[in-house]
Amino acid sequence: MQAWLLRSPPFLLLLLIAVHLTLVASVRLSPWLGGGFGMFATPDERHLAVYAVDAEGGKTEIALPDALHEDALRAHGLPSPARLRALADDLARATGRTPDSIRLEVWRSAYDPRTLRVRGEPLVAIGPGEDPR
Questions:
Q1: Which residues, at least 6 apart from 127, have a Cβ–Cβ distance to it below 8 Å?
Q2: What's the whole-model pTM score?
Q3: pLDDT tens sequence for the chain (133 residues)
Q4: 75 DSSP assignment
């Protein structure tokens, strides 16, 4: 057997790890998704908050329709601004609201390294008149 064939599996595994770490750091991919090993070392607890925003800027949390559950899971795992905007558009159609009256926020739990206390940390948010973070 060729020597390069014997060395290729470890190389491919290292390449997979490098790509996964890059996606987690650059586009907020959940460490539990995308073929990574983060599920063994990372408690990735995320929450998708959905709000209706009124004309004065007040917001009220609204329930996500069951028909949008799969789309919400995808936005939860990889919360790109485009994916959140598409979910907001679908939610607006499903609830009879306008897309500019819906705010979506994806939060994750972060742990203080000294005290191990949990705090919420925003990952990305889209809403009326704002660019995503």
A1: 51, 53, 102, 103, 104, 105
A2: 0.72
A3: 577 666 788 888 888 888 888 888 888 888 777 766 666 777 778 889 898 888 777 888 888 899 999 999 888 888 888 889 999 999 999 988 888 889 999 988 888 889 989 888 888 888 875 555 4
A4: H
Structure tokens at 65: 């329709």
- Ramachandran angles phi, psi of 15, nearest 5°: -65, -45
Place of tokens 């460490």: 31
**50: exposed, middle or buried (C-beta count within 10 Å: 0-12, 13-18, 19+)?**
buried
Q: Which of 26, 33, 131, 21 is nearest to 77 (CA)?
A: 33
Residue ranges per domain, the chain? 1-41, 45-133
d(CA 36, CA 34): 6
Beta partners for residue 126, in sequence order: 104
